[in-house]
């Protein structure tokens, strides 16, 4: 409307003012020069015609300009709308993303989405703003992150995802995949980081790897063990024979014999892996099996100033299991517990019904404990921290419990002690 008003006003004003000027000036000139009425009229008509035509041209030009102005205003509004829409789209994408999306400048957090705050254990993203990223990155990865920031600053490249570890508010550690790029934020260079929690994925992969190694080792065990056992018996026999004939090498042959014994122990552990396929499950009193195992350790415990304290829930149901195999598991765990307590202490053995279908056996020692990052290695073949260890005891135990459709959980605190929780189904063959 405003432009329409202007559209008529300017040419109209021009024509009006020019006409008044022409009439007045021509009147004065006409009188001064004493022109005839005829000549005077021709002058005026010519001048008025010119004014009228230029007025029309002016009108057309203004109209065209205003139309194009109008169009560019519409285009500008459309652009603004598109910008608002795309801004809203990106904002929602960032808020909806299950991954952490974070902006930082030289390691100082400028923005983090809700998922990111939640991943780190915070309610409100604002709690993280202004904090240093390095407060949340595991110390092992500080150097890598510094190098990546340096690389992005120099090359403004998009960096491929790498695996890192981050520390949450409660101190827990998450495995994450981190991708990053440099961006412009508020006219300054900053970095955008996308962080994906892969802790569960890694756990599943580890469990799969462990299960795989267990079954491969199990299937190889029987064959290899038998093959080795025979030549070993021959070796042992000859060493003993040499001993009888010639006593001069006795110290060496004693070592040889003890080493052969060690190989035999390893083979027996290995054979346990293959056995589960041929065992028969029966309903057994778990309390009896546990107590029988504890009795085996009586003398050893006294020598090591360790007290084994049992505590069994009354009236537990019988559990479908292979008694000798479970005994093997309890022996392995109690043996480890004793070996972890060089200065003595207590080992608590508790047995209770966890729910309708499960019983739980808990062994808690006051030993040296296991560092958190090493717990996942338990049960891997040959993982041992002992000079004379085989690293097979727990592997065999995990396999036996797996065959009973049970689970083993380990909780440990270095310097405080370790707890092994064995959860067994009451009926494992249903
Ligand atoms: N109760 C425990 N306390 C501390 N460390 C333990 C305990 N049980 C097991 N471990 C750790 O697990 C490793 C593997 O145990 P295991 O499979 O029985 O093999 P080994 O006893 O021959 O070393 C041990 O070397 C030890 O480091
Ligand atoms: Mg052991």
Automatic annotation (TrEMBL):
Sequence ranges assigned to domain Histidine kinase in this UniProt record: 223-428
Enzyme type, top EC level: transferase
Record keywords, A-Z: ATP-binding, Coiled coil, Kinase, Membrane, Nucleotide-binding, Phosphoprotein, Transferase, Transmembrane, Transmembrane helix, Two-component regulatory system
Domain of life per record: Bacteria
SUPFAM superfamilies according to UniProt: ATPase domain of HSP90 chaperone/DNA topoisomerase II/histidine kinase, Homodimeric domain of signal transducing histidine kinase, PYP-like sensor domain (PAS domain)
Domain named PAS: residues: 86-156
Residue runs in coiled coils: 69-96
Reaction(s) the record says it catalyses: ATP + protein L-histidine = ADP + protein N-phospho-L-histidine
GO molecular function: ATP binding; phosphorelay sensor kinase activity
Domain PAC: 160-210
GO biological process, alphabetically ordered: regulation of DNA-templated transcription
EC numbers, comma separated: 2.7.13.3
Membrane-traversing stretches: 7-24, 44-62
PROSITE patterns in the record: HIS_KIN, PAC, PAS
InterPro entries listed in its UniProt record: HATPase_C_sf, HATPase_dom, His_kinase_dom, HisK_dim/P_dom, HisK_dim/P_sf, PAS, PAS-assoc_C, PAS-like_dom_sf
Protein name: histidine kinase
Species whose genome carries this gene: Aneurinibacillus migulanus
Classification lineage: Bacteria, Bacillati, Bacillota, Bacilli, Bacillales
């Amino acid at each position: 409307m405003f432009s329409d008003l202007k559209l008529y006003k300017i040419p109209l004003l021009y024509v009006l003012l020019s006409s008044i000027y022409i009439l007045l000036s021509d009147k004065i000139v006409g009188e001064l020069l004493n022109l005839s009425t005829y000549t005077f009229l021709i002058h005026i008509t010519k001048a008025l015609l010119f004014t009228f035509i230029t007025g029309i041209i002016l009108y057309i030009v203004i109209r065209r300009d205003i139309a194009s102005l109008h169009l560019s205003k519409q285009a500008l509004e459309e652009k603004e709308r598109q910008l608002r829409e795309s801004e809203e789209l990106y904002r929602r994408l960032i808020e909806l993303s299950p991954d952490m999306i974070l902006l930082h400048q030289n390691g100082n957090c400028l923005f983090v989405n809700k998922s990111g705050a939640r991943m780190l254990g915070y309610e409100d993203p604002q709690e993280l703003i202004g904090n240093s990223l390095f407060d949340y990155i595991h110390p092992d990865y500080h150097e890598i992150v510094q190098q990546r920031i340096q690389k992005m600053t120099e090359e403004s490249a998009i960096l491929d995802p790498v695996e890192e570890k981050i520390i949450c508010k409660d101190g827990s550690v998450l495995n994450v995949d981190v991708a990053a790029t440099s961006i412009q934020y508020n006219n300054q260079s900053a970095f955008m980081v996308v962080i994906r929690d892969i802790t569960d994925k890694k756990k599943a992969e580890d469990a799969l790897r462990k299960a795989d190694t267990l079954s491969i080792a199990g299937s190889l065990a029987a064959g290899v063990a038998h093959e080795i056992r025979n030549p070993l018996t021959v070796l042992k026999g000859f060493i003993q024979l040499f001993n009888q004939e010639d006593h001069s090498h006795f110290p060496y042959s004693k070592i040889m014999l003890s080493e052969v014994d060690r190989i035999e122990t390893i083979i027996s552990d290995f054979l346990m892996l293959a056995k589960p396929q041929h065992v028969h499950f029966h309903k057994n009193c778990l309390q009896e099996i546990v107590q029988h195992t504890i009795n085996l350790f009586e003398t050893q415990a006294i020598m090591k100033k360790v007290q084994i304290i049992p505590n069994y829930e009354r009236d537990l149901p019988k559990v479908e299991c292979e008694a000798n195999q479970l005994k093997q598991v309890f022996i392995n765990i109690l043996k480890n517990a004793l070996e972890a307590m060089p200065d003595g202490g207590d080992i608590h053995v508790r047995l209770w019904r966890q729910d309708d279908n499960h019983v739980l056996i808990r062994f808690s020692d006051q030993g040296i404990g296991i560092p958190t990052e090493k717990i996942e290695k338990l049960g891997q073949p040959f993982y041992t921290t002992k000079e004379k260890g085989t690293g097979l005891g727990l592997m065999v135990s995990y396999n036996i419990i797996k065959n009973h459709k049970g689970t083993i959980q380990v909780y440990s605190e270095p310097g405080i002690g370790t707890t092994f929780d064995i959860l067994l189904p009451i009926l494992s063959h249903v």
